[in-house]
Design brief:
Helix 14 links the parallel strand 13 and strand 14. By secondary structure, this protein is of the alpha/beta class. Helix 2 crosses helix 7 and helix 10 crosses helix 16. A seven-stranded parallel sheet has the order 5-4-1-6-7-8-9, with helices on both faces. A six-stranded parallel sheet has the order 12-11-10-13-14-15, sandwiched between helices. A two-stranded antiparallel ribbon has the order 2-3. 44% of the residues lie in helices and 13% in strands.
């Protein structure tokens, strides 16, 4: 599926600059519209989110109140580097660490890390105490939005009417282009909610940045609304911003208009030059820089050392299935089918995405029935440890595919989402497309595995920590 029609509609209708009272509500919602309402509808996958019960809603409210009042960490003034972290953490030993900036922030003593909880949960214990919770700002925005939404205030109705008038025609055209039945009312409500949250949050983020007064801001991902607000305020205050690539290149890296977008970072730091071919940003090319990923380098060295002869006990090679919520049903059924046909020759590891850990046995009962298959449903075993034990990987739209290639795994891909990013892999014979279990089993039975000797440098620039540190130091 191509994103070009979506970008064309954005440009023709000047959606990037659609604002109400200075709030660019479309920018905050475009990712969800494309990913959750277009791609999801085209792929026809089921939502894995269950309707929230009254009890869960009450628990959620108390969590919000607790984290907003207690939080963790203290603010510092006049710091060198302000890191804005990705919320999910990984466990190493007794503590939880940031997946993307742990190695980097240790190089800068006069720094602070801002974070949001992951699904209303803070990982604990953490080793580094220089972390400040943004949950208080989240609560202020949420309560402001709920007040107007629940009471259906005149102001709420006015804003919703304006948003509907501005985007109704573009959404209709987009639905026709992609031949999907968009839930327009749901999209309007999402955009309105984003507007009210952003209006309240912007004031708080401005106060926060003025107090911190950092020399540079380094964020793990620019797509969340809070990060986009921070980018815009930073430009007003003359604070440079940069984003560390954290995953796949998706719609957040795609813009049809070359005019400046204030809510994007000033610089983008990529895993390698490979990703530049997929970037379409209103940003000077010199500000798109390849630096690598420290976490990948660290884990590659450590876990590759473990990759000796891990198959002595069973005498079998190992297939790793990398699951994701959008394709979890299809992927888990594929893994079960392959197990039934190839278990005499292959052991199978099924690595669930963290968003699938909860009640996966009920969501994928066919997977739970296969007791001999190894299902990783927690953070105790990392994806890198799985790579080290495997010979083959099967996945969809996941950064893990490129990390697995760094471990020289033979790679098979399930078409989903932005498949154009994987076309070069197939063209270079680094990977093959598979559409069903019969096709995958055919490949596994009829040809030798085609893992590369060492392709990691093609997808991951080396000396990542030094490269990133150099880019940050330029502003200190």
């Amino acid at each position: 599926m191509t994103i070009d029609m979506f970008l064309k509609s954005e440009k023709e209708n000047d959606l990037y600059r659609k604002e109400i009272e200075g709030i660019p509500y479309w920018l905050y919602g475009r990712n969800a519209i494309y990913q959750q309402h277009i791609i999801a509808k085209k792929a026809m996958f089921r939502s894995m989110t269950k309707p929230s019960t009254f009890r869960n809603k009450v628990k959620k409210v108390f969590k919000i109140m607790f984290y907003a009042s207690v939080g963790r960490g203290k603010l510092k003034r006049n710091i060198d580097v302000c890191f804005v972290d990705f919320s999910r953490k990984e466990k190493r030993g007794d503590y939880y660490y940031s997946q993307y900036i742990e190695d980097i922030r240790q190089q800068f003593s006069n720094s602070i890390t801002l974070e949001m909880p992951y699904n209303h949960h803070f990982y604990a214990p953490i080793a580094d105490k220089k972390i400040y919770s943004l949950y208080g700002i989240y609560m202020i925005g949420k309560m402001y939005q709920l007040f107007h939404q629940r009471l259906r205030t005149n102001y709420y109705q006015k804003i919703k009417s304006e948003i509907k008038n501005q985007v109704e025609a573009p959404l209709t055209k987009i639905a026709m282009d992609y031949q999907v039945d968009l839930d327009a009312e749901s999209i309007y409500n999402m955009l309105v909610s984003g507007f009210f949250r952003a209006k309240a949050e912007t004031k708080q983020y401005r106060l926060l940045l003025k107090k911190l007064n950092p020399k540079v801001i380094v964020e793990v991902m620019a797509i969340p609304r809070g990060n986009m607000i921070i980018n815009a305020i930073a430009k007003e205050l003359g604070i440079p911003t940069m984003e560390l690539q954290h995953g796949m290149v998706n719609i957040s890296y795609q813009y049809a208009d070359t005019a400046s977008v204030q809510h994007l970072p000033d610089k983008l730091l990529l895993f390698s030059d490979y990703w530049k071919q997929f970037i379409r940003l209103p940003m000077d090319e010199k500000n798109v820089i390849s630096v690598g990923l420290p976490r990948f380098e660290r884990e590659l060295v450590r876990d590759k050392a473990m990759k000796t002869d891990v198959h002595v006990a069973s005498g079998k090679k190992v297939i790793l299935f990398i699951s994701q919520v959008p394709i979890g049903v299809k992927m888990s059924k594929l893994a079960v089918d392959v197990y039934k046909q190839m278990s005499d020759r292959y052991d199978i590891i099924y690595k669930l995405h963290p968003n699938e850990y909860t009640e996966w046995q009920k969501k994928y009962p066919w997977l739970a029935e296969i007791k001999e298959m190894t299902v990783i449903a927690n953070d105790e075993i990392s994806i890198y440890a799985c790579f080290a034990k495997s010979d083959i990987q099967v996945g969809g739209y996941s950064t893990g595919i490129f990390e697995g290639l760094g471990f020289n795994l033979a790679t098979y891909l399930i078409p989903y989402g932005h498949t154009f990013i994987f076309e070069p892999l197939v063209g270079l014979n680094y990977a093959k497309w598979v559409h069903n279990s019969q096709e995958l089993c055919y490949y596994l039975s009829s040809e030798s595995l085609f893992g590369q000797d060492d392709v990691s440098a093609y997808f991951w620039k080396k000396n990542a920590l030094q490269n990133i540190e150099r880019e940050i130091v330029r502003f200190l």
